[in-house]
Predict the structure.
Amino acid sequence: MKSVVSYPERGTGGDNKYRGNCSPKLLKDLFELYNPKKVFDPMCGSGTTRDVCLELGIDNEVMDLNPQYGGWDALRDEIPGVYDMIFWHPPYSNIIKYSGNMWGKPDSRDLSQIPLSEYPEFIKKLNLIQKRLFTSLRKNGRIAILVGDIKKNGRLYSIQRDMAWMGTPEQVVIKTQHNCWSNNNQYNGNFIPIVHEYLIILKKTSCSILPCNISVPAEINWKMEPRLTWRTAVRVALEELGGQAGLTELYKELSGYVATKQHTDPKAKIREILQTKPEFYSLKRGIWGLRNVA
């Protein structure tokens, strides 16, 4: 296994028709690298982890919210054992819905029922599950988390960036995707199709201390940012006003910025910035625009 892996041929194990399933070859490479004695998969999908473990003779337990695999709820139900490796491939919000689609009826406990409009709640639940899974790892055990990015309406939702990284980061492997739905579509403009996933490998090096790096999705309100420069403040304000505005509008818009309130003559400072910085230009007296500057 290297830091970039590609499996054009899926391999044997699980169900290749089960949407979102990963290549058995990835799991085989992972397990042969770390040689675990007992593996747990909390969201086993079509059972790929189980099949690979059976092939390699590795003791394993696989669970899923799907009643076929016990109807096990990763957020609430007791984890059945203790493991030296966990492979976890969670859903990517509601990009592929599982309950009510791949199996059974829609289940409110299913992470794939959480819409992107509730993305912070999705990340919160991912973090809670990851914390629970770490409690079932032996010391020096590992959790390997396979996650991807989501692109919708021009916005990138980077799950691996936003979720917590619990334990000691040991490796990130980039896995290229093959035969995915997006490969059959033509895209206009500057849209870049996502053709990779991340395999994040985290190690439990201590039983009592769990290093944790959390990136909480949030919005920055530039008006409340005290360290914003005048140049950036004027540019942001002009962008907010549609790229063109009169001085009166700019004065009013910038009056709400914390960073501009300490100047003795903010209107004079605004005019200075407009007149001296190349990204601004005068349309006519008292009206300013914003140009693209390389």
